[in-house]
Amino acid sequence: MIKLLGSVKHVAKSTVLNNRNGNSYSYSALFLSPSATGSSSLHRLNLSAKDVVASLRDWFKPPSNALLDRIFTILSSQDQAARDDASSRHAADLALSHLNIHLSEAFVLQVLSYGRRSSIDVLSCLKFFDWAGHQPGFHHTRATFHAIFKILSKAKLMPLMFEFLQDFMMHRCIHRVRFYETLVMGYALAGKPGMALQLFGRMRFQGIDLDSFAYHVLLNALVDERCFDAADMVAQQISMRGFEDDITCSILVKCWCKQNKLEEAEAYLRSLVESRKPVNGHAVSIVVNALCKGNRFKHAATLLEEFTELNVPLEHAYGIWLHNVVQLGRLNWSLDFINSKKLLNKDVPCLFRYNILALRLLREYRLNELYDLLIEMEKDGISPDKITMNVVLCFFCKAGMVDVAIELYNSRSELGLSLNSTAYSHLINNLCSSGVIDEAYHVLRNSIHEGYFPSKKIFTILADALCREGKLDKIKELVILSLEQKFRPCYAVYDMFIVALCKANRVEDAYLLHGELSRLNKYMLHETYFHLIHGFCKSNRGDIAATLLLEMQERDHKPNRKLFRDVICCLCDMQRPENQFFKLLEMQLSHFEPSSCIFNYFIAGAGHAKKPELAREVFEMMQRSGITPSQRSDILMLLSYLKSGRISDALNFFNDVRQRRRAGRKLYSSIVVGLCKADKVSYALNFMREMRNNNLLPSMECYELLIQSLCKKESYGLAVSLVNELEKTRGYITSFIGNVFILHSLKTEKLHAAWVQFVELQDETSDISLLGQVIGIFSGCIEANQDIENLEEIIAKCFPLDVYTYNILLRKITESKVDRAFELYDCICKKGYEPNRWTYDIIIHALLRKGRRDEAQRWLEEMFEKGFDLTEGTKLLI
Questions:
Q1: Closest to 482 (Cα-Cα) out of 441, 451, 515
Q2: Distance in angstroms (rounded) separating the CA atoms of residues 65 and 246
Q3: Which residues form the signal peptide (predicted)?
Q4: Residue 707 domain flag
């Protein structure tokens, strides 16, 4: 393994793309040749994915046994020839006889154990059992019967097991094993505890009793089948006969855990300590697993600490805890918790230490160090467990070697690899990223069969990919499969697929799934209704959207204003919009008590759809219904005129309102804002003056939009006077206004010229004067220290900086020195701001303009990872 994987390490180091900080990416390069991927580099080294996986086989798999391998090769060749062909069975019997096997109970148990551990065909194990039973001088024992029963039970081949037991009963005379004991164990393991108890009662009636081994098999089966009263009775019998041992302890603990009596289970373990009896580490692992299933990870870790200090062997228990943590996606929490408790400083199992370190390196994307750690484990002879194997698979995914990862996945049965949800998510995500959608679909199907539902994000990624390729039948298959498995999250899965279909503009299929949910008397989530209704609105199917809106309300989900507005706008775009509009209004009024809220929704919707006549009709209908229009109703009606460009109607309505009631600050602010958005700046200025004359303080939005509108028209003098007024009345200006000014100062010197005319009347120490200095610097009219910290400090004295401010600052800096943009980017992140699309676009645009394409490519990959896309102007430079 070490020699072969040395080449893999070289590939992982040299071919995985680095981002600007040297971290790894699995994205294909836009500016590099496609051959620079991990998989193609493996081919250049004459390594196939099979070679890499083969190198892991010796470490993952326990040592093989040539004789046992030969036995199962013979048995499997019979399967391939013909299962019921007498000649092939005779040939297999003859081949086994030629091996000169010395049959004994120990050897038969070894063969069956090897077959079960190696995931070999169950029927091969059964054939060997049958062959051994027919050999002269050998008779099956209770232990060998128990072994084959466990194999059949684990494979869930119950019909075959019942047939086996019936055959055993019919041939009682030829078996030398204890007859009733074997039947009790068989039916117990077959999931028929009632039948097992009947046979046990018949034994006791005849004066026959079970031995310790059979008692424990029966007790364990009763607990597994939740027959707790019967289990208590059998446990008493075990105690009376002095059969109690560490196995009894484990089964009793499992019994309490299955009844959710975790406190009793813990108390029992502590009582063993107090009475100086040995504590079984397996029993502790059962409690730990139950606590984890109940999302009580901290308590489980505390229990591990407690029994670690008592020198109880807990390697399995630590593995259980870590497996559950990873399975539920709580890895980050677990690593922080382990650090806070300094758990690794205590006497914890060696494998647990290695796994924790491996998971930390995987999380931090330190792939080379992770590789070195795995090699160290192999050198030191530390056998991997399920966590380690999953880390290895995730390593190949993150290193961009998805073909190796899928080969490892396909060999999971042979290697004993059982994937957890984290590994499934990494694998599915990488397969989707590589365009291997069908393979990702099959992996997801298998994960559902094995009881793992990947995260919502992974489900959405695959669903979107399947939708893009038109493979809706596969999506439906996944939904049906999840329902058949009767998993608790199956209805959430339905919602995930409906949302994914809606996002892929497949609303008809989503509606069919919704119908399936309704037939099952299960209803969609609030968010899912939103997606489905929006989907039909986008498809111009307002009639279905309106039906879903009403259904949503009947399910006690409250739609917001925007959803109502979107549905109404969609209805207004259909044929005969008036009929559709009033039909929905009638349905709302008939299902719910008429209120100003309902009428307001329709006034707002009609206004947004630029149907002011419909809005006016609803407004008058509200008055006829005896409901006095509220100030909110007046504002919505006013805005409906303004949005439609009916300025004269808006002004007339405003005057009508003033006749009915005193026009307040909100009404004035609404007309000022509406006029600004309608590009009627002169009207807006007049109403601002009217507000001040009436001793009403304009809202900050009035100032913001009016100043923005004036700057667009290059009426910088008026804009400056408004800023001065705002500084005097409020004492500050907002980030929005400050950003508008510095953005325009980047474009033209006219703003600074207007400022110069005004600034002489101002106090030089005021914020307004400082803003003029910033405008001068950004327009290039004032020479100043271009140091980032200096610019930040000056701007901060004028108004609070936000990410938009930093983006403008980024544009200013990249005009001269691109490298300083990286410094500013790091500064943005350190201050807690989240870089947005414009942040990345500005940097990439500047790099491309300077011909630094490799650097631009790395930033572009990071941008895509965040879900952003380039602006059209920057795309032209690629």
A1: 451
A2: 31
A3: none
A4: no
Per the structure block, which two tokens stand in for 298? 């901290």
**Residue 498 is which amino acid?**
I
CB of 548 closer than 8 Å to CB of 524:
no
Choose one of 12, 38, 57: the last residue of a domain.
57
Q: Tens digits of per-residue pLDDT, 162-185?
A: 676 666 666 554 444 467 777 888
Residue whose entry in the numeric block shows the structure tokens 């009631």: 661
Q: Which amino acid is at 387?
A: I
Q: Are residues 794 and 813 in the same domain?
A: no
For residues 646 and 578, membership in a common domain is answered with no
* pLDDT computed for residue 680 by the predictor: 94
Residue 250 falls inside a structural domain: no
Distances, alpha carbon 170 to alpha carbons 151, 183, 202, in Å: 22, 12, 17
Token pair 């006077």 is found at 721
Query: Are 56 and 408 a contacting pair, CB within 8 Å?
Result: yes
Which residues have CB under 8 Å from 12's CB, separation 6+? 38, 367, 368, 371, 399, 401
Q: Give residue 418's region: left, alpha or beta (phi > 0; psi -120 to 50).
A: beta
* 583 and 597 part of one domain: no
- The confidence score (pLDDT) of residue 701 equals 94
Contact status, residue 596 vs residue 634, Cβ threshold 8 Å: no
Segment 278-285 shows an average pLDDT of 85
Half-sphere exposure of 772 (CA within 13 A, CB side): 26
Does 667 score more than 80 pLDDT? yes
* DSSP-assigned states of every residue in 773-828: HHHHHHHTSS-----HHHHHHHHHHHS---HHHHHHHHHHHHTT-SHHHHHHHHHH
Are residues 646 and 610 part of one domain? yes
CA dihedral 122, 125, 127, 131 (to 10 degrees): -170
Prediction pTM value:
0.53
Q: What is the pLDDT of residue 272?
A: 85
Task: Identify the helix (H) or strand (E) that includes residue 17.
Answer: strand 17-18
Average pLDDT, the chain: 82
What domain range includes position 625? 593-672
Q: Which of 801, 827, 847 corresponds to the end of one domain?
A: 801
Q: 3-class SS at 726?
A: helix
Q: How many domains does the chain have?
A: 5
Query: What is the crossing angle of helices 647-660 and 631-643, to 10°?
Result: 170
CA pair distance 159, 168, nearest whole angstrom: 14
Give yes or no for a contact between 409 and 424, defined as CB atoms under 8 angstroms apart. Answer: no
| One domain, residues 814 and 861 | yes
Cα 202 to Cα 447: distance, rounded to the nearest angstrom:
44
78-97 pLDDT per residue, tens: 654 444 556 666 777 788 88
Strands 24-25 and 17-18, bridge-based pairing: antiparallel
* Cα–Cα dist 194/191, whole Å: 9
The DSSP secondary-structure symbol of 851 reads T
- The torsion region of residue 733 among left (phi > 0), alpha (psi -120 to 50) and beta comes to beta
φ, ψ of residue 760 to 5 degrees: the values are: -65, -25
How far are the Cα atoms of 291, 298, 302 from residue 263, in angstroms, in the given order? 10, 15, 14
Q: Is 474 in contact with 444 (CB distance < 8 Å)?
A: no
Sign for the CA dihedral angle at 168, 169, 174, 177 comes to positive
Amino acid at residue number 35: S
Distance in angstroms (rounded) separating the CA atoms of residues 321 and 369: 24
Q: Rounded mean pLDDT of 682-702?
A: 93
Local structure of 717: helix, strand or coil:
helix
pLDDT at 343 over 70: no
What the block records as the tokens of 661 is: 């009631």
